[in-house]
Amino acid sequence: MSEAVIRPAVTSPGLLASLDPLLREWLPRQRWFAGKGRPVTGFSQVAAVELLPWNAKLGLLHLLVRAHQPLAPTHGALPHPGDCYQLLIGVRETLPPHLAPALIGHPEEGPLAGRTVYEALHDPRAADLLLEALRTRTQVGGLRFERDTRQELQDDLVPRVVTAEQSNSSIVYGDTFILKLLRRILPGINPDLELPLALAREDCPRVPAPAGWMVADLDAETYVLGVLQRFVPGATDGWDLALRELAKGEDFSGEARALGRATAEVHTALSRALPTVTLGHTQMDMLVDGMIERLEAAVQAVPALRPYAPGLRSAFDALAELAAEGETWTAQRIHGDLHLGQCLRDPAGDWSLIDFEGEPSKPLAERRLPQPTARDVAGMLRSFDYAAHSGQPLVADWADVCRAAYCTGYAEVSGRDPRSEPVLLRAYETDKAIYEVVYEARHRPDWLPVPLAAVHRLAGGAAAS
Ligand SMILES: Nc1ncnc2c1ncn2[C@@H]1O[C@H](COP(=O)(O)OP(=O)(O)O)[C@@H](O)[C@H]1O
Ligand SMILES: O=P(O)(O)O[C@H]1O[C@H](CO)[C@@H](O[C@H]2O[C@H](CO)[C@@H](O)[C@H](O)[C@H]2O)[C@H](O)[C@H]1O
């Protein structure tokens, strides 16, 4: 095992103050910024490490900053310290043309006055430095770069930034590895690292194994900052593939069945790797209460849901009734946010699942709770429905055929057909469709009709007036 390289942390005072006015403008424009719709009124420094001194020809600052924002009305009177974000800031005299799109601005005051600051992920030299830190297991300040020393990490891999819309930010190294840098940082064990590591221990081939990870140790808490994983070269994600096949009028049921098999393989491996529990009456009541609370909050946020509320609620009440009659369910660790966009098919036709972060808006502890596997299944079933309704002429039965094939594939591997628990599945599908209505209303209003159509169906047809 190679020795960790330990370097002292160096930080100059005043750096954050120098960046403050620029970051207030820049941060809210980023896709991954979670506090959309509320201005950023200032920052506090959680941690700062100069990976390269700011006054060198190329400076590189690793910052964890808390963004202060006025409370959203839904937060009520509860104090909220503000979300903590990971930033990698490059500092140069001037930007070479290829880095122009990464410009953050020109600080006017403080130590950085007169220099140019930019989003350093786009700079191959910064990306190289991160990989080198992982390779050599560098520790600097509170930052710790770790790796699985059984996997070779070459030092000549050419980096490129992933430009797709993402909740986080990723760099691909030579089509061999992909480093995901988490943007909104939370203390504690992050399932995006925890679950792929557990699956790698189980030799599950359906999830790319982590080759390295980056954490910050701060005030007795560990924050996962990034995960380096095997890259699946030439992969197409399930969403793009489904839309492509739909547009050609091609059958997708073979792929849907393979996806069901892949999901069941991952669930089986997770049930071996991590604890499973039985959910009885009390636990199911809590689970159903959560669904009802989310419905109520969604109705407040999106009034178009109101007429459907009684019909949607009946899906949750039916589940509570089964629990009251003594039925129990097994819960285990699951993906937590599964949809077609989280599935990658390689050129040989094999599927992998990625992005085990869970629903980013939920606390880590909640995301790490064991849950019925039906929740992931419902996410995928919703995704086939999304694909069928996403613009192209509606192909009759396309979604139904895919949904059935997916469940068949799932049953082939796990021995349990998700359709054999219709009440549980309907409750989870309803919960997900409600989540999607809120998500689309907030982020992509043009897409709102897609989950609303599902709400109409799940609520039992015509809206009650
Ligand atoms: N192991 C991988 N191999 C190939 N591509 C990947 C891999 N992991 C992620 N990607 C690509 O990067 C994109 C973003 O990854 P994801 O983990 O979903 O990030 P985020 O949490 O930011 O949404 C994916 O949609 C996929 O295109
Ligand atoms: O990208 P994330 O994993 O953070 O997930 C969020 O965004 C998704 C959209 O990008 C959203 O997914 C919804 O739209 C998909 C098509 O774009 C569809 O396949 C999914 O089934 C549907 O839920 C997801 O809900 C949201 O959490």
From TrEMBL:
<dbReference type="InterPro" id="IPR011009">
    <property type="entry name" value="Kinase-like_dom_sf"/>
</dbReference>
<keyword id="KW-0808">Transferase</keyword>
<dbReference type="Pfam" id="PF18085">
    <property type="entry name" value="Mak_N_cap"/>
</dbReference>
<comment type="subunit">
    <text>Monomer.</text>
</comment>
<feature type="domain" description="Maltokinase N-terminal cap">
    <location>
        <begin position="26"/>
        <end position="123"/>
    </location>
</feature>
<comment type="pathway">
    <text>Glycan biosynthesis; glycogen biosynthesis.</text>
</comment>
<keyword id="KW-0320">Glycogen biosynthesis</keyword>
<keyword id="KW-0321">Glycogen metabolism</keyword>
<protein>
    <recommendedName>
        <fullName>Maltokinase</fullName>
        <ecNumber>2.7.1.175</ecNumber>
    </recommendedName>
</protein>
<keyword id="KW-0547">Nucleotide-binding</keyword>
<dbReference type="InterPro" id="IPR040999">
    <property type="entry name" value="Mak_N_cap"/>
</dbReference>
<keyword id="KW-0418">Kinase</keyword>
<dbReference type="GO" id="GO:0005524">
    <property type="term" value="F:ATP binding"/>
</dbReference>
<comment type="similarity">
    <text>Belongs to the aminoglycoside phosphotransferase family.</text>
</comment>
<keyword id="KW-0067">ATP-binding</keyword>
<keyword id="KW-0119">Carbohydrate metabolism</keyword>
<dbReference type="GO" id="GO:0005978">
    <property type="term" value="P:glycogen biosynthetic process"/>
</dbReference>
<dbReference type="GO" id="GO:0016301">
    <property type="term" value="F:kinase activity"/>
</dbReference>
